[in-house]
From TrEMBL:
This is Uncharacterized protein. It comes from Streptomyces xanthochromogenes. Pfam families: DUF6507.
Amino acid sequence: MDGVGLTQAAEYGAVRIAGVGVTGWDIDPAGVGSVLSRVWESERGLNEGISLYGKGVEGAVLSVGTLDFGGGAGQDSGQAGLVAVALSEFMQGTETDVVFMPLRTGNSINGAGEATNCYVRGALEQATNAQRQAELVPDVAAVLEAARKKGTGE
């Protein structure tokens, strides 16, 4: 991306900029690219952390034991213990928030990149639309439903 500065932005004209609901933009595409690159790195760390979180809770659920009402032995001989049930309920209760974080981050990164590219091309209305799309709340329920269907082979 080349550096589009205030002088070049002014060449688009105040009427054109005002016509798309923006009072004026002065974007440094190289700076945006640098920031987005660092955010992508952080987002990878977020995904790794979420994966470790899931594996950690899963390991804890398997390690806390079971309730055994019949005197049987072994991990699979009883019902899930109280701690395992509590951990499972906690995971279910936080699932939407955990899925939301990387979705929101990805949408924001992609929207900022797309809006910047549109800005560089002089497509200010498209830049505004890309910015508005990036601000929309991700549909976590649809993502979770699709993941569950994929997991069950539907």
